[in-house]
Each structure stands twice: as C-alpha cells, then as structure tokens.
Amino acid sequence: MPASLPLNPDAAIIVRALSKRYGSLTALHSFDLEVKQGEIFALLGPNGAGKTTLIRILTTLMSPTLGEAFVNGLNTALHGLEIRRLIGVVPQENSLDRYLTARENLELHARLHAMEPKRFKGRIDELLELFGLAGRQHDFPDTFSGGMQRRLVVARALLHEPKVLFLDEPTTGLDPQSRRAVWDYIRSIAGEMTIFLTTHYLEEAEHLCQRIAIMDHGRLITMGSSAELKATLTGGAIYEIEFAVGSEHFADMLQKMACVAKMELAGRVVTVTLERWECLAEVVAALNGAELRRISLREKTLEEVFISLTGVRVRE
Amino acid sequence: MNMNGTLAIWRRDMLVLRRSILSEMIAVVAYPLTIYLAFGIGMQGYIGLVEEIPYGLFIAPGLITMTAVNAAYNESVWSLWFHRRVQFTIETYRVTPISAAEIIIAKILSGFSHGLIKGLVVALVIFAITPFHFPLTNIVTYLAFLIPGSALFSCAGVICGTLLDKPETIGRVEAVLIMPLIFMSGLFFPLSSYSPAIAPFIRLLPTTALFEGARQAMVAGSFSTPFSANLCLSAVVTFAAAVLIFRKKLAE
Would you call A266 an interface residue with chain B, using a CB distance cutoff of 8 Å? Predict the structure, then answer.
C-alpha cells in the first residue's frame, strides 16, 4: 500500500506494508493492519510469528526496515516521544524494579511521564486499590505472587492514563483467578482506550477481543471476529455421540460410512466429523437400535481455527 | 534537552543507595583501608621517602581516587547490565517519553555520585587514621581531578554495561583492563620508575593524568594543566562514545 494514502482518523493503529529484517531473517513481511479507536484487538500467532517485533515497532522500541506504522496518527519513526506519551505497555517480562516498593515503582513511572506529584499520588492510590495491592504498597515486588506482580505491571502501564494500551501476553503464567481479575479490568476499561493484545491463550482473545488477527511467519493470515474466524474453518459438522453400551461396535460401523470424514472413540463417546451436515440423517438412521445417552453438535473452537491456519508442528 | 527522565532515574538510584549505604560502605572502606594499612603503614618503614614524601602520604591520594573511580565504574557497569539483562527496566524506561540520552546521563550521574560518596568516605577514614593534613585549597584542586575522573570511569562503565552481555566478561574486563590501567598509572610507585622509553606513553594515559594529577594536587597543591586537559578530554570523548554505543545497541 502506498505510504502517501491519507490516514483513517478512526484508526488508533495503522500499519502499512511494514517489514522488519534481522540479517537474513525476515520477521515481518509487508504487514498491513488497522485497529479502530476504542477497540480491543488481539494478535495471535505461534512463537516466532512476529508479534513481539510488531509490538516493538509500534511502541517505538524498534525501527522498521520498510513501511510505516502510525499510533493515533503519529508516525512511529518520526514521533517516538509523542507516541510514548500516549501509550501504556505491559511487556512479556514483569520488568518491575525489585529494589523499589510497589508504590515506588509506580512513582518512578509517574515521574518518567513528567506527572506532577499532586496528580500521581491520588492516581497511584486509586490503582493500588483497584488492583488489590493497597495493603502491600510498601512491600518489594519480590515478595509478591506472580499474579500480584503482573497486576502491578498492568497498574503501572495504566498510571498515566494512556490512549492506547499494548499488552504483550499479559496473563502468561497467572493462575485462573489472577487471569480473570486482569480480564475483568481490561473489560471494565474497554472503550476508554484502544487495547492491542497478543496472547497464547485463545480463550483470552475470544473472551476479550472484538477482532482477532492471526499471523504466522511475519504475515497476516486472517482477521475478523471470533465467530467470523470460526465460520472460515472448512470441513463439516462435528457431533459427539454418547452410548450407554456398545460404543466400540457403533464406532466400527460409523468409521466405515462414506459420509464420515473422521471418527474418534473415547470410552463411551464417539466423535464423528461429517463430510456435510446433510449426512446427519444417514448417521441417525445407522444408529437405529443403539442405546443412546446423548447426541450433541460440537462447536468449532478458535484453537481449531488457529491450528488449521498455523499447523500443529512445534516452533523453535 | 528535558532532564526530567535523568532526574527521575538518578533519584531512583540514590534511593536504592541510601537503603544499602551502611552495608556497602563496610565493603568499600575495607579494601583500600587494608591496602593502606599493609603498604602505607606496614611497608613505610622499609620504603621510607618516595619523591621526598613519606610512602603513606604518597599512596593516600591514589587510594582515595581508586575507591572513587572503581565505585563509579562498578555502579555504572553493573547497574546498566542488571537493568538491561536481568530486570528489563531499561525497556520500561524506553517506552516512556524520555530519550536514550536521558537514561544514559542518569546512569553516568549515578555512577559518578557513587564514586564521589564512596571516595569521600574513604578519604575521611584515611585522614582520621593518618597524621597527614591537607589544606582546603589542595582538596579543592584535588576535586578538579576526581570529578572528571569519576565521570570518565562512569562512562567507561556504561559502555561495558551496554556492550557486554555476560557477567563473567564484565569481571574479565575489570581484571584485564581497568585494574592494570589504574596500577600502571603510578598508584604505588613514582612515574620516574619507568624507563625513559616507556614513560612518555604512560604519561599519555588518562588514568595517569588522573592519579598523578590528583596526587600532585592533594600533596603539593599544584594543578597540572596537561593532566587536567587530558582527563577532561578523555571524559568528554568517553561520554560521547557511551551515548552513541547505548543508542546503537538499543536500536538493534
């Protein structure tokens, strides 16, 4: 896309033909993306897909080899300082200062943003309360649980009230309760700021985000809502059939049917993938006489979409 | 340039120093004091006068200077390495609206402050246990060498902390480069001990300018303009190199 095209004023993030090369390795290939103001947007991809490179360019930590990126209309290559005033960043690592207390960590961040003490003191109280850390504000982060440390990192990123929040795998390593607490907070601020999230937890993207992009090998593969992405998954309907008895016998029979693309047996439950949903009548007819407990349609998951697009092989 | 970020990071470093000052001081004072007791007092009777002054007096300015510049170097190198490689706080600073130069100046200032504070403490201890007294003007002249010297070593520490990724390499650089440069500069012996063929090269070293200039200032109250110019120029060049190297490394 030519760089001279006018910028969409409704977009908080615009990425145009962005490429990044590290020697012979190309981390981003002519990447294009737009994230709307106030949107919660997820970027998914296997390890090494280029997610962190993209976030590093958008947060002005790195320059692209080719192409342009804009945050709130400001070019990342030209307006780094102005962009950093507008953004909050939750990096993959906790990056808390272990020699400062929780409150001092927040105070340092406020001073780096040139906030006046009168303004930041109240804001720090508010955030510590909100994230359940007020009682531990004078303790050092090393004495915190992983969940508390992560909450403190999120609080730090929100201290200066950013317009765009970048969350790079914000809940990695958290227990389910802490993860839900972070999700609840992200949901509560939705609309106030644009949130750009990368995650390995597909459930997280599905729960939180209005739009999801999947990237691999530095390229954008697909983008849309969770429902839209699931709809793109090819193949017929998947049904789970639970038998009271004789599941092995019926599994053998179903396996031989032409309209059954795939069959899996797990105890009394047979999972069949049909070539087309119209095959269901044929399957039901074949099950005549069977002692059935349940037949249910299994919804496609985002994980299946992700695996179908990026493959099952483990990345180095 | 706005120095807001520099001030915030320097304040952070001073807060951390204040918390650990007592435990740090014990270690800081112990090393030069042991050397002083062993050489300045223990060997004084055997060595006698060096360049017409008692040996204890000859090595005292060098030990104070060594403490200050070592503290400046160590604070800068380890602080930068730790914040870059272990704690990732440099990344956190870099996504705030401050420039790379502000971060680097803060780290240089912190190293410099460590150097001055620790050098001062060792000076007070040495002054307290020795019969030597120095006029205030001598001490002010001495500071004219100690201040750029601490800045020079702080910048050198920043360069090493930026370039070296492994802690063991940092230790090796100190053992192979920093300490030999300090010892070659005539900390324990007069420069006249060098052969005439080598002496001019040794006198060109910034560490020689620092240690010899500082000794002349404190003991005799004299100010060596060539040594001062050498030291200040070296500090400015090292500062520019530190800023450039830091920016380049972070851009990678």
Answer: no
Residues 190-209 of A with CB under 8 A from B: none
Helices (H) and strands (E) in chain A, counts: 11, 14
| Contact predicate B160/B173, CB 8 Å | yes
Is any Cβ of chain A less than 8 angstroms from the Cβ of B17?
no
In chain A, which residue's Cα lies nearest the Cα of B96?
A84
Look at the block and give the residue holding tokens 């029979």: A253
Tokens of A79: 């307006």
The amino acid at residue B107 is K
In chain A (316 residues long), the average pLDDT of successive 10-residue segments reads: 66 95 90 93 89 93 94 94 96 91 97 95 94 94 91 93 93 81 84 88 86 90 84 72 89 88 89 80 85 83 72 58
> What is the rounded CA–CA span in Å between residue A154 and residue A152?
5
The predicted-structure confidence for B176-230, as pLDDT tens digits, reads as follows 988 898 888 888 889 989 999 999 999 999 999 999 999 999 999 999 999 999 9
Structure tokens at A112: 């780096």
What is the spatial distance between Cα A139 and Cα B198, in angstroms, rounded to a whole number? 57
Alpha carbon B57 to chain centroid, angstroms? 20
Q: Inter-chain contact B92–A95, Cβ cutoff 8 Å?
A: yes
Q: Do A81 and B91 touch (CB under 8 A)?
A: no
Q: How far apart (Å, rounded) are the C-alpha atoms in residues B3 and B222?
A: 36
CA atoms within 13 A on the CB side of A295: 11
Check: CB of residue A77 under 8 Å from CB of residue A64: yes
